[in-house]
Amino acid sequence: MFWLDLLWLIPWIRNRRIEQAKAHLVTAEASIAKFQGDLLPYSTATLYLPERVRRPLLQEIEVVERTLQPVGKTVRKTRDNTMRDHLESISQSVGKFRKVLTEQNDQYVQSMIEQHSKLLVDELKLMQLSKSRPYGTTSGIS
Predict the structure, then answer these.
(1) Which of 43, 37, 18, 31 lies closest to 91 in space, CA to CA?
(2) Residue 46: left (phi > 0), alpha (psi -120 to 50), or beta?
(3) Residue 48: what pLDDT?
């Protein structure tokens, strides 16, 4: 008989978890907006992302990912497709920001190498040419 008195507790717990999941989704969305604002100056021009900016953002992304895991379990148990879509879009955004943070500097380095490769190749050719000539000889220009 005692367990009949507690039956009202099950829907209350379920509803409370759903409300907490919604609150976590709103918090995650706010974090994503902050990430966009912090990364905007670096991502528009594909600039080098300093470690003092990158490390705290990566830590924040990890925190958001950890909070989204239990939220995902709760959202999957509900039959609310809009919450599922919302969670999926937030998860994709977090993944995109993680990818930008981890690959931005490598892309920057590659673009700088491509931009300056002709200069590097010409410099290497001049160095090889100067090493192959014995000292005291001229290039034949009079």
Answers:
(1) 31
(2) left
(3) 87
Alpha-carbon gap, residue 115 to 110, rounded angstroms: 9
Q: What is the dihedral of CA 24, 25, 31, 36, to 10 degrees?
A: 170
One-character DSSP codes across 58-93: HHHHHHHHHHHHHHHHHHHHS--HHHHHHHHHHHHH
Tell me the pLDDT band of 142, cut-offs 50, 70 and 90. Answer: very low
3-class SS at 134?
A: coil
Q: pLDDT tens, 74-98?
A: 888 888 899 999 999 999 999 999 9
End-to-end CA distance of the chain: 113
Residues 6+ apart with CB under 8 A from 97: 32, 35, 39, 57, 61
